[in-house]
């Protein structure tokens, strides 16, 4: 079926609103009462693997970064991520105990495809996380997990990212359960949270309107820093990328604890800080990083379940008990923020200048 806007102003907007549904589809048939069922990950594929190397570009690289935290924390597998265009020419050292994972919405990104070829030529086992069946990357990889986001038309990726993260989370749980690094009780509670992911992605009444209203403050100024820690650091990178792609304003994602090593020199009231302050992961640490920026007069938009008195703007998130639920809700908010800023600036959100949906040449 050809994608239609169905009353939304932009495909990107429609795709943001579709996320709760496409996540359900991504989970469908892959979760039983007490285990993760990923038949694509055969025993042969995982045998002898103790390292995972992830390779991707753009937004898909950011979901890979999230996965690197999840693989180490949940599955206790050494994991690292590389940008495909860097990986290609660095003469990478590859050993057969490594599962090579490529992540791609389109399955056609030239750099990612070439990286996959290099890994295959080195004899590694390969897994693709991809949204397009029968794409070049899917055809080449030993195994594929399809992300089931449906057709994504907006050049700025939203729902594909959400489904990639959910899929990679399932992979981490699957491997952790197989290896016994996750006990049954923890697995049950992770599954419980996974199944509730669509709730975190549901656009609550008043949220979009609130973001529309507060977005007017963020049309001028000399730049944005999205900051977060742990998995909220790659989310900060992704939030900044969304904003850059469609608003053409300068935005950077940064690890909150690293601001003091340079970027804080930029802080003044024209520096907008989007602070990702989850309650379930390093709240106090992140808060003190944001306080340092506030003390230098930076304009702060805090996204958090906890009211933060130094914030110039505040978007309150739900009272979640799991970092991944907080992750998905904050992801949604940063997507809507980028959308609203770009719309106010009069930009073509679905066809941003200079960008292509899929980059099939080097
Ligand atoms: C392009 C798109 C991005 C995307 C990247 C990787 O730059 O504009 O949105 O994240 O390619 O694409 P892929 O299809 O490999 O995920």
UniProtKB/TrEMBL annotation:
<keyword id="KW-0032">Aminotransferase</keyword>
<feature type="domain" description="SIS">
    <location>
        <begin position="41"/>
        <end position="181"/>
    </location>
</feature>
<keyword id="KW-0315">Glutamine amidotransferase</keyword>
<protein>
    <recommendedName>
        <fullName>Glutamine--fructose-6-phosphate aminotransferase [isomerizing]</fullName>
        <ecNumber>2.6.1.16</ecNumber>
    </recommendedName>
</protein>
<dbReference type="GO" id="GO:0004360">
    <property type="term" value="F:glutamine-fructose-6-phosphate transaminase (isomerizing) activity"/>
</dbReference>
<keyword id="KW-0808">Transferase</keyword>
<keyword id="KW-0963">Cytoplasm</keyword>
<comment type="subunit">
    <text>Homodimer.</text>
</comment>
<feature type="domain" description="SIS">
    <location>
        <begin position="214"/>
        <end position="352"/>
    </location>
</feature>
<comment type="function">
    <text>Catalyzes the first step in hexosamine metabolism, converting fructose-6P into glucosamine-6P using glutamine as a nitrogen source.</text>
</comment>
<feature type="active site" description="For Fru-6P isomerization activity">
    <location>
        <position position="357"/>
    </location>
</feature>
<keyword id="KW-0677">Repeat</keyword>
